[in-house]
């Protein structure tokens, strides 16, 4: 028989060890269906590692993929910290991308040092405003934000499609539903020549640092943590609960909006309706894997990006579907959720007398 | 029931139980016998190891050393399999936890049956179960409506369901963890009558308590735990409250004594305040608190006290009426305005409203003043200053914690209350609202709370003391008003009142409504 006994506070080292163990467990679990698919497990993982880390190109591709995941992961983490369940990062990402394209394709012209900040700000603002609605509905009327943010994703995606087939369609695009390309002066510069990696990564890393600083060191962060952990006590202690939710909502939406800015202004150059392969939703997984810690979000985003990029590469080499990546990510999430149990409880095996002796 | 119990009568024996959590010894070599038909009170302060001991008995924890022996129906005592609640249930041990373990959305009957039958058999077993329960209820006097959903039952009724659940499983030993912590005085009395009846039928009963009066009144034997060790085991007839209190605390007890105060001018006034709706609503309440006095508010739980406390705390705006502080109307009602105007609020449910359990002691001490210059500059937290202040308050208020960085949820109830006291009283507030400030606290912590309130009064603050404990009210208050169904009577000097009159007014008889 297995027994669980509660543990006291958990040191950071153990948290880290459990997270790494969870990632390893996920890789081992995913190996089972890989073996059934006829792959040699070691060879397949070798190919994946090579695909994500094997060359400078592979490595920068992995970092490029991690960039939006860091931002949507932060968006989820900061909102979840206040127990504001923002499931709408996908929609906020598209809103940010749409705003970046609207501003960056000729609405204003000027040198790069004016246009780039403008595009970035516009995207952040658009994402934040999208999240403002569900937040106000929650604080004023008690409407469940899980429902509103989730459904807004579809509303916004359809709106983007409408814009791309209508007013914002590229006249030079031969009828494809895509926007005009972003001006060169408005595009985020590349970090390295001949690679796709761009300044969005720096923005994401600075954002992670900023969110960490906000939560740990500032009054607003204190209030976010207090509201998230015990809203009743926070209200009793005079903390402005509603204002805190609004701040968190704006910030969370803005971070997701920044992810959209990076994808259009740093990577693609123009907006299409398939800009994001679900970065907003993957951000939730990233945040959960990270235990809502901003620094953890960076690590978790790198992990998930390397799985995705690695699996793509492996799938090209072996012909096995890259859905395997989704499988590994799902296994990782399950492993991490289960590992939470081991952080909170001490597990003892109680069996026959021998086992009992050992347990003492 | 007095005298050494015959070996054959023993239904339960704890033999040298030791349990350690890290460096802390929660139980050290505790041995205990319980006989058939005996009511044993397990007395001790918070953190003395009572609950740990009972959790070992019930199999929630495994003891590091020692054994639990039960009479399995025959003559001999057999060792109980450690760490198995299932084995404890099989052996006829029933436990009523302080926080009930009932499914709110099921009927009382289904809750009682839950876990006794396989799910498939549940439908067919209802009729015989109902017969057995009706017989049990008739015999024990524990009446509940079996078909009512748990969520619609009062706290007292829920507790009866818990006891019935144990009896239905043919418990020979019943353990109750602080059974009166959640009950009104009337409900407590009924409970103990029932327990006596059950003991008369041969049930062995252990109840955990730190309330001396009920231990003296209702038990046959008392075992006192202190610091995890059993320091006394004696017949109740041989002891009095004072002796028990000293055994429990380990030193002589000083009773709280109130010297006549010198009330000053009106400080905090409620005029014609109505608020809330339903059972807990307030109707046209007038209240006039003077400086330098403690104004007690007596009443049976659920008569509007919670709403009154919410209004004064700034958590709910009154639907009509005004609140004035030193002659100025408080227009804006929010927790923040109340704090900024020098109102200290000690909430009724300190775990729910008083602390953020996941945050540490430092943060919980600073939470009400987090935006004040002493705690932040340009929106950045001043950790060093917060820490320094916390260390100072921990010392001044004797908050027992590992360090100022410990999460507040790890502290005992008494120490959590000290955090609330420290952060609210430190700023020398003009008005103190203390809602049920000693509920669930042990003798030492209660004494501490009372001294703090008296000290606030002595320096000229006005204190509103909402309590269901008449002894506490009569000991501390200069004047007492009674709240009943949302109406508050005019406050009268404590000296002109006695328990009988107050009791009648609390039940809604006699006494003029506020004039």
TrEMBL record, chain A:
**UniProt cross-references to Pfam families, sorted A to Z:** BPD_transp_2
Localisation per UniProt entry: Cell membrane
Could you tell me which InterPro entries the record lists for this protein?
ABC_transp_permease, Bacilysin_exporter_BacE_put
Residue ranges of the TM segments:
53-80, 92-108, 114-134, 146-164, 197-215, 245-267, 279-311, 323-343
Keyword annotations for this protein?
A: Cell membrane, Membrane, Transmembrane, Transmembrane helix
* Keyword Oxidoreductase found: no
Q: How does it sit in the membrane?
A: Multi-pass membrane protein
Matching entries from PANTHER family are given as: ABC TRANSPORTER, PERMEASE PROTEIN, GUANOSINE ABC TRANSPORTER PERMEASE PROTEIN NUPP
Task: Give the protein's recorded name.
Answer: ABC transporter permease
TrEMBL record, chain B:
Which Pfam families does its entry note?
Answer: ABC_tran
Cross-referenced PROSITE patterns: ABC_TRANSPORTER_1, ABC_TRANSPORTER_2
Residue ranges of domain ABC transporter in the record? 12-252, 267-510
What InterPro entries is this protein classified in? AAA+_ATPase, ABC_carbohydrate_import_ATPase, ABC_transporter-like_ATP-bd, ABC_transporter-like_CS, P-loop_NTPase
What stretch or stretches form a coiled coil here? none
Alphabetic keyword roster: ATP-binding, Nucleotide-binding, Repeat, Sugar transport, Transport
Q: Which CDD domains match?
A: ABC_Carb_Monos_I, ABC_Carb_Monos_II
Which superkingdom?
Answer: Bacteria
Q: Record's family?
A: Belongs to the ABC transporter superfamily.
**What protein name does the entry list?**
ABC transporter ATP-binding protein
What broad taxonomic lineage does this protein's source fall under?
A: Bacteria, Pseudomonadati, Pseudomonadota, Alphaproteobacteria, Hyphomicrobiales
């Amino acid at each position: 028989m297995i027994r669980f006994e509660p543990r006291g506070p958990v040191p950071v080292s153990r948290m880290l060890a459990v997270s790494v163990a969870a990632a390893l467990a996920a890789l081992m679990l995913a190996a089972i269906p890989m073996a059934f698919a006829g792959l040699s497990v070691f060879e397949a993982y070798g190919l994946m590692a090579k695909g994500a880390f094997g060359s400078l190109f592979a490595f920068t591709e992995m970092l490029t993929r991690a960039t939006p995941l860091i931002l949507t992961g932060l968006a989820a983490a900061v909102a979840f910290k206040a127990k504001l369940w923002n499931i709408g990062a996908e929609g906020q990402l598209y809103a940010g991308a749409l705003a970046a394209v609207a501003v960056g394709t000729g609405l204003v012209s000027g040198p790069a040092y004016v246009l780039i900040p403008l595009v970035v700000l516009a995207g952040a603002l658009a994402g934040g405003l999208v999240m403002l609605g569900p937040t106000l509905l929650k604080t004023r009327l008690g409407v469940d934000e899980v429902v509103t943010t989730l459904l807004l994703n579809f509303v916004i995606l359809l709106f983007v499609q409408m814009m791309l087939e209508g007013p914002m369609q590229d006249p030079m695009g031969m009828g494809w539903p895509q926007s005009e390309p972003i001006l060169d002066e408005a595009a985020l510069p590349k970090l390295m020549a001949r690679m796709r990696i761009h300044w969005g990564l720096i923005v994401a890393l600075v954002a992670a640092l900023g969110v960490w600083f906000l939560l740990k060191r500032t009054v607003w962060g204190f209030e976010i943590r207090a509201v998230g952990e015990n809203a009743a006590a926070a209200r009793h202690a005079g903390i402005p609960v509603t204002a805190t939710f609004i701040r968190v909502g704006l910030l969370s939406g803005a971070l997701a909006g920044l992810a959209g800015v990076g994808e259009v202004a740093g990577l693609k150059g123009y907006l299409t309706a398939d800009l994001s392969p679900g970065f907003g939703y993957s951000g939730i997984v990233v945040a959960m894997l990270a235990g809502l810690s901003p620094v953890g979000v960076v690590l978790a985003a790198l992990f998930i990006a390397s799985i995705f990029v690695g699996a793509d590469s492996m799938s090209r080499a072996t012909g096995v579907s890259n859905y395997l990546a989704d499988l590994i990510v799902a296994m990782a999430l399950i492993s991490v959720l289960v590992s939470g149990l081991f952080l909170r409880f001490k597990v003892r095996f109680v069996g026959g007398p021998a086992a009992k002796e050992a347990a003492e | 029931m007095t005298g050494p119990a015959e070996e054959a009568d023993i239904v339960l024996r704890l033999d040298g139980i030791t349990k350690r959590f890290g460096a802390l010894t929660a139980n050290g070599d505790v041995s205990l016998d319980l006989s058939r038909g005996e009511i044993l009170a397990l007395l001790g302060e918070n953190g003395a190891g009572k609950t740990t001991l009972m959790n070992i008995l019930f199999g929630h924890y495994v003891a590091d050393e020692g054994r639990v022996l039960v009479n399995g129906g025959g003559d001999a005592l057999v060792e109980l399999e450690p760490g198995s609640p299932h084995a404890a249930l099989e052996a006829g041990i029933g436990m009523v936890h302080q926080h009930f373990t009932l499914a709110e959305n099921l009927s009382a009957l289904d809750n009682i049956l839950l876990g006794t039958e396989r799910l498939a058999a549940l439908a067919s077993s209802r009729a015989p179960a109902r017969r057995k329960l009706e017989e049990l209820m008739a015999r024990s006097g524990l009446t509940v409506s079996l078909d009512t959903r748990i969520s619609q039952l009062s706290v007292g009724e829920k507790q009866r369901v818990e006891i019935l659940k144990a009896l239905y499983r043919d418990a020979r030993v019943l353990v109750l963890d602080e059974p009166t912590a959640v009950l009104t005085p009337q409900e407590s009395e009924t409970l103990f009558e029932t327990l006596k009846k059950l003991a008369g039928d041969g049930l062995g009963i252990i109840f955990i308590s730190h309330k001396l009066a009920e231990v003296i009144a209702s038990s046959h034997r008392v075992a006192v735990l202190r610091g995890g060790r059993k320091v006394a085991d004696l017949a109740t007839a041989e002891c009095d409250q004072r002796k028990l209190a000293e055994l429990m605390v380990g030193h002589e007890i000083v009773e709280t004594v109130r010297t006549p105060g010198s009330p000053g001018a009106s400080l905090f006034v409620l005029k014609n305040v109505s608020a809330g709706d339903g059972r807990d609503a307030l109707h046209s309440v007038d209240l006039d608190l003077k400086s330098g006095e403690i104004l007690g508010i007596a009443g049976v739980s659920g008569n509007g006290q919670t709403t009154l406390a919410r209004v004064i705390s700034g958590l709910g705006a009154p639907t009509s009426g005004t609140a004035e502080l030193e002659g100025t109307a408080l227009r804006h009602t929010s927790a923040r305005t109340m704090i900024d105007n020098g109102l200290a609020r000690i909430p009724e449910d300190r775990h729910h409203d008083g602390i953020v359990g996941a945050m540490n002691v430092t943060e919980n001490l600073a939470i009400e003043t987090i935006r004040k210059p002493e705690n932040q500059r340009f929106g950045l937290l001043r950790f060093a200053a917060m820490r320094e202040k916390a260390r100072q308050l921990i010392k001044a208020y004797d908050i027992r914690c590992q360090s100022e960085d410990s999460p507040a949820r790890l502290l005992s109830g008494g120490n959590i209350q000290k955090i609330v006291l420290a952060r609210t009283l430190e700023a020398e507030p003009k008005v103190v609202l203390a809602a049920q400030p000693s509920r669930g606290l042990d003798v030492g912590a209660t004494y501490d709370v009372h001294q703090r309130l008296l000290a606030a009064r002595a320096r000229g603050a006005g204190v509103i003391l909402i309590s269901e404990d008449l002894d506490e009210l009569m000991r501390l208050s200069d004047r007492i008003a009674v709240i009943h169904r949302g109406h508050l009577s005019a406050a009268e000097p404590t000296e002109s009142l006695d328990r009988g009159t107050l009791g009648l007014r609390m039940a809604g008889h006699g006494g003029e409504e506020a004039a």
